Amino acid sequence: MNILDTAKMIIHEGPICDYCMGRQFAKLTTGLSNAQRGISLKLALAMDAHRAYKEEGDESLLRELAPCCSYARKVLGIDGKDERCWVCLGLFSELEKWADLAVHALEGFEYSTFLVGTKVSGLLSENEEILWSECNISHAELLKTEMNREVGKLIAARTNKIVDFEQPEIVVMLDIANETLSLQIKSLYIKGRYKKLIRGIPQTRWPCRSCKGKGCEKCSFSGKQYPESVDELIKKDVITATAADDTAFHGAGREDIDALMLGNGRPFVVEAINPRIRSIDLEQLQKAINTHASGKVEVHDLQIVSKEMVEKLKSAHADKVYNLKVTFSVPVSKEELISALESLSGVEIQQRTPQRVSHRRADLIRKRHVHSIELLGLDSAYALLRVSCEGGLYVKELISGDEGRTVPSLTDILGKQVKVTELDVVSVDI
Predict the structure, then answer these.
(1) Residue 174: strand pairing partners
(2) How would you label 254-277 residue by residue, b for 16+ Cβ within 10 Å and e otherwise?
(3) Is the peptide bond before 207 cis (omega within 30 degrees of 0)?
């Protein structure tokens, strides 16, 4: 069946707009819009119908064309406008309306690239499928694809922004059935390193154990187990700088609440959710965070990164260096301690999930390496140690043994109970 015969079948189904007519043949030519294809096909049909009318007195095709072709109406002497398209239900006559809604919704957002997406109603999908089935259509383009393109062209012309099919900063979603639209804003990702300068604050917000975050007397109705966190001390200024709705914190591992994070700091990415501002002064942001979190948290090396950096941080297997202050159940000589430390250096440690985290971690046996462990200082009350190890090693349990769940351990080798009283992370090697 040739193209004009197929077009005649389409016209026979009912009034159809230029967009929907042309879209049925979208994959057969390039360089034309679907509306241009539709106009051309209708004109070709009208010319053929006019010939049949003049030569044979047959006006049947002209009558079928009349509801959606001004030329056919003119030949027949019929006044009026095109009837509503039965396929799109007049949707493509409302492109300007949708573009207006989108441009208005985008006001107040800083962005360079965007993309339009469309959620069509069940009725529109059904109409399209009926047409394809009845007329054996095999070269069509989806209605929503054309809608995305045509509204996108109007938005681009009005805003001077660029359509990006790969990584748009904003996606405009058109909901045809409900006649509404929504915006999907690409998060802004800021990478840096943080130091935690005081003990007693977690990396991220902890819901209160008693009320599970709902708020109760024990947490002073804050819903939090601890008043502050590294995350919260950073997020306030990020939200201010980006005009974001919220943030999400992604760290390269985490230190214990009672540990300091020193040295060059721990890598992190803070995700600004639904940011209205994207071009931010990172130097000014760093200064603001360090001023407001002074004495508690310090950040440096801030930079804008892609979303992929979050997964990279989460999956990175970083080596760590710790400084420990340990105490002994009974006195230990320097020689005895050095000998025990040497026997731990360079060995593989088998650790069953520690008791202190067993409520939130899978009960597994993990194998990790101690690269080195050395004595920094010793007096009658405590010793200072430095441990260099593979990421994922529970260092407190390396010292205490965790009642035999970590093997070998310093407690096991000495035959005397050893306990970590202070822990500082001094290097996270990523």
Answers:
(1) 118, 181
(2) bbbeebbbbbebbbbbbbbebbee
(3) no
Which one of 3.40.440.10, 3.40.50.1980, 3.30.70.3190, 2.60.40.10 gives the CATH number of domain 319-429?
Answer: 3.30.70.3190
Q: List the structure tokens of 270.
A: 């803070």
| Secondary element (H or E) of residue 414 | helix 410-414
Query: Which token pair is 278?
Result: 């994207």
**Residue ranges of the chain that CATH labels 3.30.70.3190:** 319-429
Place 401 in a pLDDT band, splitting at 50, 70 and 90: very high
Helix (H) or strand (E) holding 183: strand 180-185
Q: How confident is the model at residue 251 (pLDDT cuts 50, 70, 90)?
A: very high
- Could you count the other beta carbons within 10 Å of the beta carbon of residue 84? 17
Instruction: Determine the angle formed by the axes of helices 143-159 and 95-106, rounding to 10 degrees.
Output: 50
Residues with Cβ < 8 Å from 162, sequence gap 6 or more? 112, 113, 114, 156
DSSP type of residue 224: B
Q: What is the pLDDT of residues 357-394, one digit of tens each?
A: 877 778 889 999 999 999 999 998 899 999 999 988 99
> Among the options 256, 281, 301, 424, which is catalytic?
256
CATH code, 188-315: 3.30.70.2510
- Let me know if 319 is a catalytic residue: no
Q: How big is the CA angle at 385 (ends 384 and 386), to the nearest 5 degrees?
A: 135
Quote the strand ranges of 254-361, DSSP E: 259-273, 297-305, 319-328, 348-352
Cβ contacts of 232 within 8 Å, gap of 6 or more = 205
Q: Answer whether 0.70 is exceeded by the pTM.
A: yes
- The answer to whether the beta carbons of residues 286 and 241 sit under 8 Å apart is no
317, pLDDT greater than 90: no
CA distance 38 to 237: 54
